[in-house]
Amino acid sequence: MQTISKRQAAQFILAKQGLIGSYRFIGKAGAFDYVRQAGCIQFDPIDICGRNAELTLQSRVRGFKKSMLQELLYEDRKLVDYADKELSIWPVDDWPYFAPFRERSRKMGDTFEGLQELKEKAVAYIRENGAVCSSTLPIEGEIYWHSTMHWSGNWHKKSMSARSVLEQLYTEGELIIHHKNGSRKYYDLAEKYIPAAILKADNPCSDELSLITWRVLRRIGAVGLLWDKSSPAFLGIDLKADLRKKVLSQLSADNKIRSVMVEGIKLPFYYRTEDGSLMQDILTGNADLKPRMSFMAPLDPLLWDKALILALWDFKYSWEIYTPADSRKYGYYTLPIVYGDRFAGRIEAVPDRNGILHVKGLWWEPGIRQTKALNSALERTLGRFAKFNDCKTVERGLRRQRRS
To answer: Which domains does the chain have, with CATH numbers?
Structure first.
């Protein structure tokens, strides 16, 4: 088995992700192409300097605007909100693969007496009146909705009923999210927006193992290079060690993935066979590795496996949003900085209502030299980030400059 250096592994991942060299993803079409490459990007409703999915796209899509993602989701209907790796955004063309998710939800809903009648009332109302949210759907009844997207046997207050019915119909695939107003979701009938050829298509996977194999291949493509170990990059897939090895072996036998060893790491790594030419370019020195700087989303596919990031880059990242303020090492919503083929540091930059982007903290990693090229790259990246957040001015009120 071929052995590559940690730096070559890092360069391969960054090149695959479109985070080094010339931009491969440009504008709205590029945003769609990246989501299609990644399979899914995680959605998180918290908006400090852009929501996670928007931050994921701005880091590698030249000219990305937040409106582009909204158009792809709610106007072009090329993308859809649904579960995958937690709450995610993925191409609507993948809808048939998630038939088992929808079927499990339907079977769970069937165990609740009276739910079918409420669902029928909701569908009839939406068919006549169009998109609704939980506060505009006139549904009565006492149902408790569990936050993990499954029905619970507990009963709760009547005001939860409309939301619960909408969420049930959504997880069953009867409804999709029509649009969002802030964090409020509006639902409409899936049949109005998803082409029948997709909506009614048979599941391409003949059994559960086939689906798991498809999802594992998808996640390898999302990161670029994944190792043979339990990984948060496989979150949402029931993938114990024996099954993981079986799936990886099958994908290798089918020539869908290739394996390499990385110096200093005893586990094999896997990448998609279709990326073989990129790997060869990295190994022969022919890849476009022109340095670029990006601010990364906390739940970016690049950061799904933080142990892998630590092993390859010696960069330890923790999202401190749920850490008490007096226990944080950095900031509330700190973004890693990628520069060239390194994690160079992290930044906390927050826009205000007056169009000013406040740089509240900037921390460089040990060994990062304050060169003219680095500072110029930082200024350009801050300018793009300010524009992304509709800011015209960047103001620095730094707490700290270098990691201790």
So the answer is: 3-92+207-396 (no CATH), 112-193 (1.10.10.10)
| Residue keyed to tokens 């890849």 | 287
Contacts of 131 (CB under 8 A, 6+ apart): 178, 179, 186, 187, 188
Cα separation, 345 vs 246, in Å, equals 38
What would the mean pLDDT of 329-343 be, rounded to a whole number?
96
pTM for this prediction: 0.92
What is the reported pLDDT for 163?
Answer: 87
Beta strands in 254-314 (DSSP E): 257-262, 268-272, 293-295
The tokens of 161 are what?
């009923």
CA 65-190-25 angle, 5° bins: 25
Residue for token pair 């340095």: 291
Instruction: Determine the Cα–Cα distance for residues 6 and 310; give it in Å rounded to an integer.
Output: 11
pLDDT at 212 over 50: yes
Which of 134-148, 293-307, 316-330 is predicted least confidently?
134-148
Q: Is 55 helix (H, G, I), strand (E, B) or coil?
A: helix
Q: CA 18 → CA 14, 145, 191, 197, 222, distances in Å? A: 6, 39, 35, 32, 11
Which run of H or of E encompasses 180?
Answer: strand 175-181
Structure tokens at 66: 């937040």
Is the predicted pLDDT of residue 145 greater than 80, yes or no?
no
pLDDT for 397: 75
End-to-end Cα distance, the chain: 39
Q: Are 331 and 348 in contact (CB under 8 A)?
A: yes
Counting Cα atoms < 13 Å in the Cβ hemisphere of 31 gives 25
Convert the pLDDT of each residue in 370-400 to its tens digit. 999 999 999 999 999 999 999 999 998 765 4
pLDDT of 367 higher than 90: yes
Between 404 and 246, whose confidence is greater? Answer: 246
Q: Are 348 and 330 in contact (CB under 8 A)?
A: yes
**Which residues lie below 8 Å from residue 269, measured CB to CB, with a gap of 6+?**
9, 225, 226, 227, 228, 259, 260, 261, 262
Q: How many helices (H) and strands (E) does the chain have?
A: 13, 18
